[in-house]
Structures are given as C-alpha cells and as structure tokens.
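Appendix B: complex inputs.
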Amino acid sequence: MLNNAVLFIAVTCLSLILSFIFDRRKTIQGVRKGLKMFFGMAPPFINILILVSVLLYLIPEEVILRYLGPESGLTGFFMAAIVGSITLIPGLISYPLAAALLKQGATYAVVAVFMTTLMMVGVVTLPLEIKYFGKKAAILRNFLNLFAALIIGVLMGWLM
Amino acid sequence: MKAQELKQYAWAAMFLAASLASYLMGFRPGISVYSNFLDFFIEMLTFIPFLFILVGLFDVWFPKESIEKHIGPESGIKGIGLVILLAMLQAGPLYGAFPVAYLLYKKGASTKNIFIYLGAFSCLKIPMLGIEIGYLGIKFTILRTLISLPLFIFIGYIMEKILGKEFKVNELEASSASK
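Resulting structure:
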C-alpha cells in the first residue's frame, strides 16, 4: 500500500513538472479537470467504502475463505464467474471490494475471474447490446469474452 | 445546487455520527466497522486523488478527438493500435462504449477492429488501470493486461471471421445509452 502511494505521488509530481514546463495553462486546466472528477466520484465512492466496511464486519473471514478461498475449488471459481457476468458493478467499486476479498483469503484466480467477467461480460446489458450489434454478434461477443475471462482467471491464479 | 451537493454526503455524515456514538458508548461492532472504513478511506486517499490529477492531465494533453479523426478503414497493426489507444483514453462502463462502436462503424472501421475496441475498452482503460494498480498491485495489473491483450485481439479476429460482411452496428438514441 505504501509502495503504491509512493509510486502514484512520484509519477504525478513528475508529470506535473513536465507538463508545467511545456504549458502552464494546460497544466492548470488538467489539474482542475482531474480534481473535478475526483470530487464528483468521492460521495458515491465513500458510500461504497462504508458498505464494504459493514459487509466485511458482518461476513466472517471463514465464510469468505470457504466460498472464495483455496478450498472453494472449481465451485468458487465458477460462482465468481457467474456473479461477475450477471452483476453490473462499476470498476471504481469493484476494485476496493476485490482488494478486501484478497485480504480476507480469496484466491487470485477467483478475484481475477470475478473482475474480468465484470469488465468483459454483461448479461444485464445484453438487450442493449443486441440493439446495437444484433443478436448473433452480441451473444457471441459475450460468450467469447466469458471464455477469455475464464482463461485469464486460471492463468492469474497460476502466475500470482 | 449547493444543497444537493451536501445531500450526497448524507450517508457519510450519518455513518460518522453512528461511529462517534459507538465510540462514546463502547459499542464494539460499530468501532470495528469504523476502523475497517478508516483503513479503506486512508488507502483511497493515498492514491486516488493523484490518479485523477493524472487522468485530468492526460485528458488535456492527449484529447480523444485527436485520435478519433485518424480512425478509418485501415486494418493491420496501425488500425489495431489506433483503436486500442482510443479505447484506453475512455472512461465509464462497457455499455458506454456501444455508441462509440457505432461511430467507428460509420467511419469504416473493420468488424475486427470494432470488437478489439470493445475488448480494450473493457479492460485497458487508463483510469481503471490506475485504480487496479492502486488496489491489486502493479504485478497483478501488468500480468492481467498482458494476458488480456492477445485474447481480445484474437476475439476480434474470430468475430470478423464468423460475422463476416453482414455485420453492422445500429444507431440508437444516443441520450439513453451513453453517459
């Protein structure tokens, strides 16, 4: 966590300095834009952190371990893939959740397949997707992406 | 407007009040939840503000429009590279990418490149990569990216192979779909 903070602060400072040397006005404009985005997402984000904090208290570590940990095996893996495919959770929310699950003992494979299906497969938005691309293309895309997500999950579990 | 902005923090205010009450009355679960929250909140503050400043700078220096106008019917590495780059500069959920897919289609992008765009949009958006690094670490992010990239390029090829020339993207009311 601390390493991350150092990395982000270093990269941000370096970019700011470089940007400032090339164009002061653009830099100020960019920082304003960024801060505006930050304050726009802060309230819903904080609400989610509250929700995750409560859930983590209510759901004991053993339960997460049993259903998403190493012993959960294929069941946990496919459960994560199904939940990730069906639900529609924005990345901003799912990442802190994923980090919390990892800390509580969920495996990398489970977390990776959950995150990837969330991002790449959308059952809820399928009707909308069909309107854009047609039935065949939309279903095929989701199917292929689900398959890709399973591969990503397996490989991540193996490599991490 | 001002009141509405404050209203967004209603839950946070209630939570803080409940936490304070828990401390005063020694209510264990409340204290425990609050300490969970504090960990998350501090973790968030260590990188999210910086990430958004970076995204803002990126937006100013590399506007999407500058890449968008280069997108056309060209295939090959250059075409793939351009759609991936364009996708990386976006933000938001996947269904927000469908209207852009229509735009690409109109501009003559190939079926393959449209689906590569969707693939890159779903897992290579720069703001999301930043958040991923912050929460799941740089090793996780790089590995996942390296594994995903060839997979969704491959998916693009399969989609083009199966759908062929008949594929088209329909235009919908932009207002209902994009945000």
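Chain A touches chain B through 75 residues (CB under 8 Å).
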